[in-house]
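Figure-free illustration: sequence to structure, shown twice.
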Amino acid sequence: MLRKSDIERIESTLEEMFPEAFCELIHQNPFELVVAVALSAQATDVLVNKVTPGLFAAYPTPDRLAAAPVEEIEEKIKRLGLYRNKAKNIKALAEQLLVLHGGEVPTDRAGLEALPGVGRKTANVVLSVAFDVPAFAVDTHVERVSKRLGICRWKDNVMQVEQTLMKRFKRERWSKLHHQFIFFGRYHCKAQRPNCLECPLLDMCREGKKRTKGLLPPLEGK
């Protein structure tokens, strides 16, 4: 298990590397955000950002999206994987916002997770980004980084990763750290080609040590 000093080092390193980390999904309001995050499942933020401008221009409000034929929604998001299922989900999501929430995105976890196509990760992102509620959303980047650095166990599921991160880091830092973990995983500690040799956390990274074995000069005195 990592020591408190290790956790503090990780936090300070991420802050130094990515002080301006933010949600890269383009949105103007909570409605656009919840739709964008729902669409981002198994898709990159870059691709979602190419699709959503046309989608939101055509359907800027829940009532407009709810009234749209699902075939038209499919046409606007067909570059995304699973676009047919996602089109059905965001249409149903808009309908539920109208029927149960007066057209507004709910500000509580239970209300968010009850929306079609919205799971815990999406709810965490919306709570954090749209409503400033501390949350630690775990996507593939967050999970990969937290396991490589030994914060979490390789066998931990997503919920266990989230719970561990919330225990190890201060609540007021969750939302910012969530984005910093994502930036670190997206632009530095990549899934296939991580920048191990330039990583300031290499000495505590289980994956990095394997990848760089024999590539680094021996430590002085060894």
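We now fold a second protein in the same way, so the two outputs can be compared directly.
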Amino acid sequence: MTFKAPDSLAEQIAQHLAERIIRGELKERERIQEIKVTQALNVSRGSVREALLILERRHLINILPRRGAQVSELTPQHVTSLYELVIYLYIKLGLAVARGWQQESDLQPFLAIQQRLVENMQREDINAFVESSFDVMRASFPFANNLYLQETLENLLPAISRTYHLALERRKGEMAQFVNTFASLLQAVIARDEVAVRDVLNAYGEHNSALVLMALAER
């Protein structure tokens, strides 16, 4: 495999490995050996080491002294902690959009994403559905105008994606729940109803966290 794209080589390697972890091809506590990755992808060992540091920063692997890199565990405590933080940050974004939109054209990106979510749900395309759900977040970034918030969420996305895939692969019907939640959130944003924005996102976080915890218990 040869990588040629605008992203750095290390970032591309990290994305490739992240996708394998998110899809469950690389299992929890499984070792990721630098030399094997180097040979499989035909890249330098230095680039692989840099990619592993990126994955550690994104909470998908642990790099242990004298033991190397291994896929991080997804435990109930990790899931609970992740959702507590992520929903807090999502609320910050939701409030920023509710306070910041000025004209209908500001909301058009969200309406387009809403349509894509419905289409992805109808095709039962989990990968596209999860990516579209993250597009909601990215469309909100300009309203918040906070690079630290943006960087934090971008680094958490792989871990969030991992939980989404775990839950949706067992219960595809939950995509409809997400679509309904987003519709309610959009209504709250349009109405500039900050209480409703908080309520919708808190309920969403509690529901998703419980769903992922249930999926963990069923493994």
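Summary for the second example: The chain is about 75% helix and 5% strand.
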